[in-house]
Write a structure and sequence with these properties.
By secondary structure, the protein is mainly β. The protein has 1 helix and 8 strands. A hairpin with a 3-residue loop joins β4 and β5.
């Protein structure tokens, strides 16, 4: 892994979460919240998986946070996440999947969304709350170790309403390119999504993007 310096730094398998999931908004019921700190944000009891061939984002920032939520039985829980924010992003060949287990009669049911197989998906003011990521990443003009509230290259701390420390560790970059992405996330929000060639399918059993 190359040293952490400004410029076109390339990191292999770097745990930065940058791929959006439409189903988190459309199908899992994630709510938009205003302000840098919000105590009432909740996520569902299900994480989801996302893959994409390439994500190109401008105005990137990332900071740690906690998402309060529930298990599928209704118990409260907390998920530590890395929040990645972009002013704008394009995504090629996006797949997102979520599995709902133990539905009466049906058993497991899988929802899968695909988009951007021709014209890329476009997003603005994009925030992703992610637990795990594998990708090849390249950053341009990166700053590491800034306070979260001072990460001015991104859209600011106004994503899913997660609980975050504005004085905590953050990083930012003018541009980020991720290739061959596989990620697990808890929530995503965006100002706008343009989903070219959107396809949705439901099936019984476990069917995931990876």
């Amino acid at each position: 892994m190359e040293s952490q310096v400004r410029g076109g730094t390339r990191w292999k398998r770097f745990a930065v979460v940058m791929v959006p999931s439409v189903a988190a908004t459309a199908c899992i019921g994630v709510a938009l919240a205003q302000g840098a700190l919000a105590a009432s944000f909740s996520v569902s009891g299900q994480s989801f998986k996302v893959t994409t061939d390439e994500l190109v984002g401008t105005g990137f920032s990332q900071y740690g946070a906690l998402d309060e939520g529930y298990t599928l039985t209704g118990k409260k829980t907390v998920h530590p996440v890395a929040v990645s924010a972009f002013k704008s992003a394009t995504i090629k060949n996006m797949c997102q999947s979520v599995v709902t287990p133990n539905i009466p009669v049906l058993g497991n049911v899988s929802l899968m969304l695909r988009a951007g197989q021709g014209e890329p998906v476009e997003a603005k003011n994009l925030y992703i709350d992610v637990a795990d990521l594998n990708a090849d990443a390249t950053f341009t003009n990166i700053d590491i170790g800034v306070a979260a509230k001072d990460a001015s290259k991104g859209p600011g701390m106004k994503g899913g309403g997660e609980q975050a420390n504005p004085y905590g560790f953050a990083q930012q970059a003018e541009k980020a390119v991720l290739k061959d992405v596989k990620q697990t996330a808890w929530a995503t929000t965006a100002g706008t999504f343009k989903l070219s060639g959107l396809k949705m399918s439901l099936s019984t059993g476990v069917k995931e993007c990876y």
